[in-house]
């Protein structure tokens, strides 16, 4: 069975990825699974640049087909923040409960139409021969007035999807994977890999 490295240490993200790619005839492994402990500086200005930086670095390190993503939340009322700094927003060690409360507080005077936001996910795949594939997915929504839901991770409890009248943390994993930014980006990547005969 072909092995594909998904360059992440985030267990919530890895669980999502394995679920979305469950019908792949391959083994999805993480950095931890492969014993890779290399720090990569994510100094790109866009999600796409950061995904490529990680994919290229870990493909070189592992010699495997390597997928990496960079994703985050962009809040229009905050000028697109936290954006590419989503994981590092208010400090890498700061809990998402604190980050989510901060964003809700920032928008306490925002009108409903000013609460627009989106999750963005860029995925880069680097082959052992150096071939690079890139995809991107987005989901539009609103910042909720208070956190809700126990599923998901990160900013999911404050990202409200009007179509479902729920936050992404209130959606079931299957529901979320069908509409999420990561699900859309991964589905597009899956099609590219199948087209190339990699899967």
Helices and strands, with pairings:
Elements: E1 2-6, H1 11-20, E2 26-29, H2 47-62, E3 65-75, H3 96-106, E4 116-126, E5 132-143, E6 159-161, E7 166-167, H4 173-179, H5 181-195
Parallel strand pairs: 1-2, 1-3
Antiparallel strand pairs: 3-4, 4-5, 5-6, 6-7
Number of domains: 1
CATH hierarchy class name: Alpha Beta
Structural class: alpha/beta
- What is the number of helices? 5
How many strand segments? 7
The CATH level-2 architecture is identified as Alpha-Beta Complex
Helix content: 25-40%
**Euclidean distance between termini CA atoms:** 10 Å
Radius of gyration: 17 Å
Mean pLDDT: 92
Characterize the overall form.
globular
Main sheet makeup: 7 strands, mixed
Low-pLDDT segments, ≥5 res: none
């Amino acid at each position: 069975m072909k092995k594909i490295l998904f360059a992440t240490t985030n267990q919530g993200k890895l669980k999502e990825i394995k679920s979305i790619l469950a019908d792949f005839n391959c083994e999805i492994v993480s950095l931890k699974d492969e014993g890779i402990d290399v720090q990569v500086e994510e100094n790109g200005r866009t999600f796409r640049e950061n995904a490529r930086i990680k994919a290229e670095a870990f493909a070189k390190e592992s010699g495997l087909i390597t997928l990496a993503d960079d994703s985050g939340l962009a809040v229009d009322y905050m000028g697109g923040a936290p954006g590419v700094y989503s994981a590092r927003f208010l400090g890498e060690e700061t809990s998402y409960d604190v980050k989510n409360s901060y964003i809700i507080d920032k928008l306490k005077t925002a009108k409903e139409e000013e609460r627009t936001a989106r999750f963005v996910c860029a995925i880069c795949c680097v082959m052992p021969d150096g071939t690079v594939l890139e995809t991107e997915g987005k989901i539009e929504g609103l910042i909720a007035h208070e956190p809700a839901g126990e599923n998901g991770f990160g900013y999911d409890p404050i990202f409200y999807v009007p179509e479902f009248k729920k936050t992404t943390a209130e959606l079931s994993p299957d529901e979320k994977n069908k509409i999420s930014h990561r699900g859309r980006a991964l589905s597009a990547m899956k099609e590219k890999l199948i087209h190339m005969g990699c899967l």
